[in-house]
Structure prediction request, 98 residues.
Amino acid sequence: MSAIFACLAVVMLAGFLRSRMRSAEQAVHRLRLFLARSTARKGIAEVSPGAMYPLTPDMIKEAAALAGYEYVDVFNRNGVEYLRFRSAERHLSGGADV
Prediction:
């Protein structure tokens, strides 16, 4: 009987871990889409770490760098911290569309 509960616990834990990993993948995908849209429109993207849960600010910076965006700075607006990014390709080409 305890073996059945142990197996059930392992299956539930595996499902929980799989869903957590999937939510992180979805957050990275949302981040990339947001960065692409914002930098195309304004040239700079302002990302609130709270909007990209479960990613931490360091994870956001790393995912943005891997996607080709350059970290600019952090600023506060109404008590909320925002991370700012710009497209590395656009910045290197002098602002012209690539």
Notes: Helices lie at 2-42, 57-66, 88-92. Residues 2-42 form the longest helix (41 residues).
